[in-house]
Design a protein that fits this description.
With about 130 residues, this protein is mainly α. It has 8 helices and no strands. The protein has helices at about 5-15, 25-30, 35-45, 55-60, 65-75, 80-90, 95-110, 120-130. Helix 1 (about 5-15) runs antiparallel to helix 5. It is globular and about 60 Å long. The N and C termini lie far apart (about 50 Å).
Length: about 130
């Protein structure tokens, strides 16, 4: 069951586990498992993260729960299903151009997108007005 989709989730968890204040054993307890076998399985890519455990896992890892949830959904159902879900639930809330801006900001800043302060707004306006 060690699929490429599971290994994507495993890499994501491993990357955030390094910065987590919790050990694997503590995360195991937070997720409600008796022993570390399940969490270790997530880390190896041998087991899928149960959907009902994603939010608690994201909190324990200190990572963006949306990114983790999307990765876990892809591991369970594939990219086509995830794209359909995004399309259905985004339902006109933003255009594809706006979605591209959001994706770019997440790519640029990772999980630490800064607050849109008046100073940052001024800088963006200045940047946008400069001829390319």
């Amino acid at each position: 069951m060690n699929s490429e989709r599971n290994s994507e989730v495993a890499k994501f968890i491993q990357a955030h586990l390094e910065n987590s204040p919790y050990t694997v054993e503590e995360i195991t307890l937070l997720l409600g498992f008796r022993g570390p076998d399940m969490v270790e399985g997530f880390l190896r890519g041998d087991r899928k993260v149960p959907l009902d455990k994603v939010q608690v896992l994201a909190e324990a890892l200190g990572c963006d729960r949306r990114q983790l949830f999307e990765s876990v959904l892809r591991s369970w159902f594939g990219i086509e299903f995830l794209d359909a879900i995004k399309e259905i639930f985004a339902g006109g809330s933003s255009s594809s151009t706006e979605q591209e801006w959001i994706r770019f900001l997440r790519e640029l800043y990772g999980e630490n997108i800064p607050e849109l302060t008046p100073a940052l707004r001024r800088r963006l306006r200045l940047f946008a007005s400069v001829p390319s």
